[in-house]
Design brief:
Elements (H helix, E strand, L loop, with lengths): L3 H18 L2 E10 L4 E4 L2 E13 L2 E3 L9 E8 L5 E9 L2 H8 L2
Parallel strand pairs: 3-6
Antiparallel strand pairs: 1-2, 1-5, 2-3, 3-4, 5-6
Length: 104
Amino acid sequence: MYILKPLVVASMLLWASFSIAQNEFSGVINSVQTEGETIVISDLEYKVGRELVVFVNGRKINFDDLEPGFNVRYTLAFNQVGGKRVIRVDLIASAELENRLLNH
């Protein structure tokens, strides 16, 4: 019994990590509409919500700092009716771009 418990816990953690990884994607921003709270990444349109956080190299920036052409990694959340919304965006940026965004 004691041998099975760690095995069960390990398998649950492994399954959880696979399900989380399926929600993470990468792409290029096509457009950002702050008023309509939407973002288009690699030709796919998503809603964004209040829970959205945006980072450049681990430092938080604003949603309206994002621009078309930026390379990003992003995390999606799914609702019960199949809708998708972006909850996290990580900007893949050069040091120059990071400096511009953090010091404007």
